[in-house]
Amino acid sequence: MTKRYIIIGDGIAGATAAENIRDRDEDAEIKVFTDEDTALYNRIMLKNYMKGTLPKQYTQMHDMNWYEKRDIDLHLETRVEEVDTMEKVVSAGDEDYSYDKLLVATGGAPRKLPQDENFENLHYMWTMNDATEIKESAEEAEEAVVVGGGLLGIDLAMAYASNDCETHYLIRGSNWWRRGLDEEGAEIIHQKMEEKGVNVVTETEVSSLEGGGEVEKVISQDGREFECDEVAVAIGQTPNSDIIDVEKNEVGMIKTDEYLETSAEGVFAAGNMVEYESPVFEKRAVNGSWDHSEAMGERAGANMVGEKAEFDFVNTYGVGHFDVQFLAIGDWNGEPVSKKYSEDEYRRLFFDGDRLVGAVMIGYTKGQKELKSMIKEKKEVNDKEELISQD
């Protein structure tokens, strides 16, 4: 009997899952739904597209022919409105579709700035269309404000600065990416941004936005004023999970077990904005990196077909804007040990007791594969200072 698989979302998690299902079941009926107007593109490459260093066509990963060759039925510009997990039916457009196994890979949507009153020149970044809008605005703007001290915020700041736009980068805390870096490590990244023309402003929150239909001035809580032509915001995401009634965490992320199956039988979830049981870190985890979402899609697709293997991936995240490499591996919530080796070299390791669980490296990235292996194999470290020594 032909199995029916439905995947909601054509990001890297959804597309990878569809491919893995087809590899394992040549007779399966596979449908993929996305509300976007184009097939899978590389979100990681969008930062270079926005900077103007990569043509748009090189961000595209799949075209319609890719799906047709694999007999995968891709529905573009089709929003799934509801999932009935009891009847195993997905409602999309004006039709209902039955499934045997379902994957929810809907990701998240950018969190809006509280002061946003639908200003025409205030931008959020997630889709290809968002990236095009930001690219075009960066090419025309003379002065911009970017809000958000995370991994996407730095991409937005560099997009404007790379287009010779005076860019004010507002960070709420003491330094960029406080989740994984202390001030000493972040100072290297701050300096690299300043060299590229970004004015890094820490300990700064937005109090108000002034202007009519467009923002003309950003006012901080301490009274500083930043005039601007354009504003871009990256202050997190909210999960796209309202379409389905399964167990979720306190912020609405879909929860899964270690096999990526949800509380509803036959329903799996993958991608960013999914909280899963990690056998590596021995706790519930969330990760939004590209390679992590791809690996999630691969594992979910295989498990939907009938395999039963734990999702034990250890992620890596990189920032490629500067002449020094930045890498973050694993989990960054443990007890940290850090060391700065030079003006451009820094490392921070994270431990759960005596077990290495994460690493952040700037400049000095030697041994990254060994560290990743230690994390996955749950090796205990007797001498943490020796491990972080440059020798």
Automatic annotation (TrEMBL):
Residues 4-276 form the FAD/NAD(P)-binding domain. GO terms for molecular function: oxidoreductase activity. InterPro entries: FAD-bd_OxRdtase, FAD/NAD-bd_sf, FAD/NAD-binding_dom, FAD/NAD-linked_Rdtase_dimer_sf, Rubredoxin_C. Keywords: FAD, Flavoprotein. Its cofactor is FAD. Residues 330-379 form the NADH-rubredoxin oxidoreductase C-terminal domain. This is Pyridine nucleotide-disulfide oxidoreductase, NADH oxidase. It comes from Candidatus Nanohalobium constans.
